[in-house]
Amino acid sequence: MERIRPSIAVILVTCGLSGIVTAASETMVFPGEDWQQVKPEAQGLDSAKLEQAVSYLKDNSGSDGVKELVIIRNGYMIWKGPNIDKMHGVWSLTKSFTSTVLGLLIDDGKATLDTLAKDHVRSMAATYSEVTLRHLTTMTSGYYAVGDETTGSYKHGPSPTPFKPAVTPLFQPPGSRYAYWDSAMNQFANVLAHIADEPIEALLRRRIADPIGMNAAKWNWGDFGKVDGIVVNGGSGNSNKHMFISARELARFGHLFLNRGKWKAKQLISAAWVDAATKARVPASMPLEELSGADGRGMYGYNWWANGVKADGKRKWPDAPVGTYSASGYNNNDMFVIGEWNMVIVRLGLDQRDLAITDTIYNTFLKKVGEAIEQ
Questions:
Q1: What is the DSSP string of 120-137?
Q2: For residues 338 and 163, what is the distance between their CA atoms, to the nearest angstrom?
Q3: In terms of domains, do 184 and 75 share one?
């Protein structure tokens, strides 16, 4: 475990109760082969109050409760559930990995936010010639695929053929409305793969996952097979093409973002990208497309959810620090990064049909975690 300069961030990942050993810490650390586990008091939290927060989350979750919850502060694991090594899909939480690949490509000078999708995927030229990577990563592209017609209750881009652009877009011009749309994210991944000239999983593995020590046996990224000669991973998280990962490994990804892209002494992705991606980029005043799968106005960054002010004038998590942001997906799969507390929270599960963990529930949980912090 390597110590680094003091920082102002903490990581939480949802799992379950487990034994913890005592240790002291005054600086940010990074895990080696595994996280160092310490009592909450060693990192400035009251154990009893933290347990109250965890109990609240357990009582307001489905059957998975807090079995896949992990809490990391200053790089130390201060709480973990019994199933943090359980590996499964995380649905739309995948989107935050997709945009991270965009950040890497921008760092490499291979793309910008204003790069046109048509310059790399020719099928976009006819109807979507003005769509940029910025539009795709903020869900404002208006992209509509062949097969995107509503399937039961699934309205927001369910196409099994996401790489076939429909003749008529969802809306025009790009950037004029917000629509949380899955097929657009899958086409986004296709564009990124062709810019990178390799599968985006391979790029993420080489540049991020391996350097931060993510266990290769505990994560993989589903794909659609080859599209124009390159394997395309699922950019959205639908159609079972999502990121498959455990809470323990996901915490490393959160810790990287907590430290603004720096791992130990090496900057793996630019701090400028981390800062930009995790702030609200969609104006609260932007019109919402009727079929949108979620309302991200005032809160959506580059495929991350910021603690912004919504269209109704209310903050997403009013009792959490303003700088809080999350990667989130169906089935109550969520990871929070809280710089003000030196903390990241990841709660994984497969239990949304039992009970959906709402923003209101998470807000109360975060409030209770904050009340446990003594220093």
A1: T-GGGTTT-TT-BHHHHH
A2: 36
A3: no
Q: What is the mean pLDDT of residues 328-354?
A: 98
Count of domains for the chain? 2
Q: pLDDT at residue 48 above 90?
A: yes
Other CB atoms within a 10 A radius of the CB of residue 290 amount to 10
Question: What was the pLDDT predicted at 26?
Answer: 52
The candidate with the shortest Cα–Cα distance to 12, out of 59, 73, 94, is 73
Residue 27 banded pLDDT, cuts 50, 70, 90: confident
Angstrom distance (rounded) from CA 4 to CA 367: 28
Q: Is 323 buried (19+), middle (13-18) or exposed (0-12) by CB count in 10 A?
A: middle
Six token digits for residue 33: 């082969």
Same domain, 253 and 235: no
Instruction: Kindly report the average pLDDT of the chain as a whole number.
Output: 94
Domain membership of residue 34 as a residue range: 2-86+246-372
3-state secondary structure of 90: coil
Provide the 3-class DSSP secondary structure of residue 326: strand
Are the CB atoms for 181 and 157 separated by under 8 Å? yes
Write down the pLDDT at residue 151: 87
Instruction: Judge whether residue 153 has pLDDT over 70.
Output: yes
Q: How far apart are CA 220 and CA 246, in angstroms?
A: 10
Element containing residue 335 per DSSP (H, E): strand 333-338
Given a cut of 60, whether residue 57 has pLDDT beyond it is yes
Containing H/E element for 23? none
User: Is a pLDDT exceeding 90 seen at residue 168?
Assistant: yes
**Same domain flag for 62 and 95:** no
Please give the Cα distance from 284 to 314 (Å, whole number). 11
Quote the tokens at residue 215.
């266990």
